[in-house]
C-alpha cells in the first residue's frame, strides 16, 4: 500500500492530488485541511488550520502512525497562502504571521516529524513541498509570499543534502506547479493595481485561457513521486518537463 499525507486537500491542487492517487488504487490518502470535500473509503481527513502552530504541534503527535506493509510513504506540503496583497509598511502583524506559519513553519514541522517517524522504513519516502516561481524573484505586493517560498526552496535543498550524506532512502523536492487555475488566482485578479503592478498580466492569463489545470499538474507531480531518481535537482518546475 502507498500512503500519502497531503495538506490543503479541500480544493485546488491539493484536492486534485488526493483524487489522483485515490483513483490509481492501492493508495491510502490522509488529507490535512480546515474542511473536507472528498468521500472515499481510502481517504482519512484531519481538520486542521496549519497556520495555527499550536494546533499543528498537537497534530504531529497523533497523525503519523506506524503503517502496515508500506510500499511508499509520501508527504506533500501543498497548503499555502498568498496573504494580503499589499506593500510592506501597510501590512498588519497577523496577516504576515499567517503567511509564514502556513507556507514555511508548518511544512518544516511536518517534514521534521515525517522523517523522524519513518526513517527506519525500508520503502521509498518522498517529500514534495509545493513552492512557486515567486520563490526565485520578487513580485511587488507579495513580499511575505516570495520570502516564504524562497525559504521553502532552500530548506528542501538542505534537507536533501542531509539525507544524501546519511545515505537515507528519502527524497525531497520543492516543486513550482506553474500558474494553476485555483482560488489563489482569483484572489490575484481581484487585487488593487496600486498594490500589485502585474495585475493586468494575471488577468490576461485567465482571459486567454493560459492557466494550468490542477489535474494535469497533479499528474506531473506524480511523475516525480513515482520516479524520484530521474530528477537530479531538488528545486523543480513542472513547466519544464
Short recap of the structure:
The chain is an alpha/beta fold and 241 residues long. It has helices spanning 12-24, 53-63, 93-118, 143-165, 183-189, 199-207, 214-226; strands spanning 2-7, 27-33, 43-47, 72-77, 125-130, 170-176, 235-237.
Write structural notes for this entry.
- The chain is of the alpha/beta class.
- The protein has seven helices and seven strands.
- Helix 2 packs parallel to helix 3 (93-118) and helix 3 (93-118) runs parallel beside helix 4 (143-165).
- The radius of gyration is 17 Å and the shape is globular.
- The protein starts with a strand and ends with a strand.
Provide key terms for this protein.
241 residues, alpha/beta, Rossmann fold, 7 helices, 7 strands, 17% strand
Distance between the first and last residues' Cα: 27 Å
Given helix and strand content, the structural type is alpha/beta
Known CATH architecture: 3-Layer(aba) Sandwich
Helical content, roughly?
40-55%
Unreliable stretches covering 5 or more consecutive residues: none
SSE layout:
Elements lengths: L1 E6 L4 H13 L2 E7 L9 E5 L5 H11 L8 E6 L15 H26 L6 E6 L12 H23 L4 E7 L6 H7 L9 H9 L6 H13 L8 E3 L4
Parallel strand pairs: 1-2, 1-4, 2-3, 4-5, 5-6, 6-7
Helix pairs in contact: 1-7, 2-3, 3-4
